[in-house]
Design brief:
Helix content: over 70%
Order of helices and strands: HHHHHHH
Structural class: mainly alpha
Number of domains: 2
Radius of gyration: 18 Å
Shape: globular
């Protein structure tokens, strides 16, 4: 199995599983944690994994931040946009009427946004058989959205 495919599966499982404790912590039907508690809690949880990983990889030093300030800037932009998504998910999960399976299916359509933006902004337009696969994948995502919403 290709490394990127394996890591993609790990990410998918991680993001999918993470929605369950997030709903349990935030939803009015369960613990009804305030937004601040849930956001800070999930941030601390992320740091418990990210900091040791960076230390292990030798990637945590001040010089690299200055030398890579443009990469840092775009990473911060990514974090800001991702935080908006996190707030939206947590806010949706707070409602006792939100079904986590349907919500996360809709959230997972982010793949559609990424595919389209990647083609237009990053000029990553697939060719040949890959183009057909991506177009079919986009069509299936759109069809899936209709199934989940109705």
């Amino acid at each position: 199995m290709k490394t990127w495919l394996f890591l993609g599966i790990v990410a998918s499982l991680s993001f999918g599983i993470s929605a369950i404790p997030l709903k349990y912590a935030s939803n009015q039907k369960y613990l009804s944690g305030p937004l601040g508690v849930v956001i800070i809690g999930s941030s601390i949880g992320a740091l418990f994994i990210l900091m040791p990983y960076l230390i292990y990889k030798g990637e945590l030093n001040v010089v690299s931040f200055y030398d890579n300030r443009f990469a840092l800037f775009w990473s911060v932009c990514s974090g800001v946009v991702g935080a908006v998504g996190t707030i939206a998910v947590i806010t949706a999960l707070k409602s006792p009427y939100t079904e986590v399976s349907r919500l996360m299916a809709i959230v997972s359509t982010s793949v559609l946004v990424t595919a389209i933006m990647g083609m237009f902004l990053l000029k990553e337009v697939p060719i040949g058989q890959d183009r057909i696969s991506v177009i079919l994948g986009i069509a299936l995502i759109i069809f899936g959205i209709k199934l989940v919403i109705h």
